[in-house]
Automatic annotation (TrEMBL):
Every RNA 2-O ribose methyltransferase substrate binding domain range: 25-99
Protein name: RNA methyltransferase, TrmH family, group 3
GO molecular function: RNA binding; RNA methyltransferase activity
Keywords, comma-separated and alphabetical: Methyltransferase, Transferase
Claim: Transferase is one of the keywords in the record: yes
Domain of life: Bacteria
Record flagged with keyword rRNA-binding: no
């Protein structure tokens, strides 16, 4: 039998965050196997270090088949989440359904539209992701791409901050952003990285072309491996004493430069 519980305890134990809204938790090896096979989207999966046994290896093979990432944690952390028999495995069910970028791009072209994709490289704050998703949905972005590791969870806080936009815009969770960028380039999209490591402003690229915009994480920005293969590097002009904008604000600025160009607005400064 598949057991679903709220995961406020997981938030408090693993992330040390205050109680807010609720998501669903599945624990027990067989229950997690059943959840995966029934099509549940796994947001996070915590596995006890050193776990073994025939049933565990069945789960491990299933994770490989479905390309689901997991985290190895001490049993003490799992025990703080639930006193029930978790068998060394706890899964968090995602509140949204994830898509594959390989499916999104052909659909956009088939509709006769020019793709505008947003890639979030290591954005870890759930409220930033939610605010970005709200702006992206308003701006007509066709999909948001996030990495399977090193990104904020899509949880009730993220959904709330997005004002429900995450229910209306496809989110693609990819194991390798570098490979995703290469796929988009081979599909005819230009890659525009928003970064301070350039002298060019965000007004320089032609966003009327098929485009994927890459926004970096709060601390490290866009990864160097993506910067090296990008078609354009672009920065937001800054005139104050503070050297950078919040990533959600920066995303809004560059997205609406893209919209300005698409609508045939006046020349940029």
């Amino acid at each position: 039998m598949l057991i679903l519980l709220t995961y406020t305890a997981v938030e408090m134990s693993f992330r040390n965050e205050p109680k807010r809204e609720y998501n669903q938790m599945v624990f027990g090896i067989r229950a997690v196997i059943e959840a995966i096979r029934s099509g549940k989207e796994i947001e996070s999966l915590f596995i006890q270090r050193g776990l073994g046994g025939e049933l565990f290896y069945e789960l491990k093979n299933l994770l490989n088949e479905y390309k689901i990432e997991s985290q190895q944690v001490p049993v003490e952390k799992l025990n703080r989440v639930t006193t029930k028999n978790h068998q060394g495995v706890i899964a968090i069910i995602s509140p949204i359904t994830y898509y594959k970028i390989e499916d999104i791009i052909p659909m956009v072209f088939e509709k006769g539209e020019v793709p505008l994709i947003l890639i979030l490289d290591g954005v870890t704050d759930v409220r930033n992701v939610g605010a970005i998703a709200r702006t992206a949905e308003c701006a007509g972005v066709h999909a948001i791409v996030v990495p399977a590791k090193g990104s904020a969870q899509i949880n009730p806080d993220t959904i709330k901050t997005s004002a429900g936009a995450l229910y209306n815009i496809p989110v693609c969770r990819e194991s390798s952003l570098l490979q995703t960028v290469k796929f988009l380039q081979s599909s005819g999209l230009q890659i525009v990285c928003c970064t301070e490591k350039t002298t060019d402003f965000i007004y320089a690229p032609d966003y009327t072309l098929p485009t994927a915009i890459v926004m970096g994480g709060e601390d490290d920005g866009v990864s160097n491996e993506i910067i090296r293969i990008a078609d354009h590097l672009a920065k937001i002009p800054m005139y104050g004493e503070i050297e950078s904008l919040n990533v959600s604000v920066s995303t809004g600025v560059i997205l609406y430069e893209a919209i300005r160009q698409k609508r045939g607005g006046p020349p940029a400064p």
